């Protein structure tokens, strides 16, 4: 199936997911470069997660702050308040998202908030995500009651946002 065959909700949400993926990788790359973290290592952000060295939160640059919590790093855009919560436990899969962190990303992104007019309930968000998974645009990972998703490898290559 190709993108032209998607309905309006699926098209809009796929754009949001690609936007999330692009920004997550951009910010992770900047964080790794700033603190000389090797993204090929097993625990690239180990030295930043420790509370003892006060590197677990701070300013990434003029635009963003960062804060590690659990298996995530939360980036916050200083002016707009846009928040993107990025998983750092999935090696090199920084565009991985859950229902809730994708919803929060949309709610805090003024450029993307119009999607809330179309996908206006959590149930519709869940239904649309599952439809994109069924159609092969994203891949889900289920662990007990916890579910995460990421773009399929082909979708990463095709996105105009990269």
Strand content: 15-25%
Query: Roughly what is the average pLDDT, rounded to an integer?
Result: 89
In terms of quaternary structure, the protein is single chain
State the helicity in percent bands: 25-40%
- Give the ordered list of helices and strands: HHEEEEHHHEEH
**Structure classification:** alpha+beta
Q: Roughly how many Å is the radius of gyration?
A: 16 Å
- Biggest β-sheet, characterized? 4 strands, antiparallel
Give a count of the beta strands, DSSP E runs of length 2 or more.
Answer: 6
Shape: globular
The main sheet orders its strands as 1-2-3-4
Q: What is the helix tally? A: 6
CA(first)-CA(last) distance: 21 Å
Low-confidence stretches: 157-162
Key words describing this protein structure:
single chain, 162 residues, alpha+beta, four-stranded antiparallel β-sheet, two-stranded antiparallel sheet, 6 helices, globular
Protein model, in words:
The structure is a single chain. This protein is of the alpha+beta class and 162 residues long. Helices cover 39% and strands 20% of the residues. It has six helices and six strands, in the order ααββββαααββα. It has helices spanning 8-34, 46-49, 99-107, 115-118, 122-134, 153-158; strands spanning 57-59, 64-69, 72-77, 83-87, 138-143, 146-151. A four-stranded antiparallel beta sheet has the order 1-2-3-4. A two-stranded antiparallel sheet has the order 5-6. The chain starts with 7 loop residues before the first helix and ends with a helix.
């Amino acid at each position: 199936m190709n993108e032209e065959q998607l309905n309006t909700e699926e098209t809009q949400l796929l754009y949001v997911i690609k936007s999330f993926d692009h920004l997550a990788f951009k910010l992770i790359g900047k964080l790794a470069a700033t603190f000389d973290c090797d993204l090929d290592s097993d625990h690239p952000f180990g030295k930043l997660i420790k509370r003892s060295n006060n590197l677990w939160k701070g300013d990434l640059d003029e635009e963003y702050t960062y804060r590690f919590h659990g298996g995530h790093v939360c980036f916050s855009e200083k002016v707009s308040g846009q928040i993107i919560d990025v998983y750092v436990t999935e090696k090199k899969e920084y565009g991985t998202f859950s229902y809730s962190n994708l919803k929060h990303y949309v709610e805090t992104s003024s450029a993307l908030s119009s999607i809330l007019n179309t996908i206006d309930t959590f149930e519709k968000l869940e239904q649309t995500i599952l439809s994109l998974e069924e159609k092969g645009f994203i891949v889900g990972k289920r662990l007990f009651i916890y579910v995460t998703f990421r773009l399929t490898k082909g979708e990463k290559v095709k996105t105009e946002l990269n």
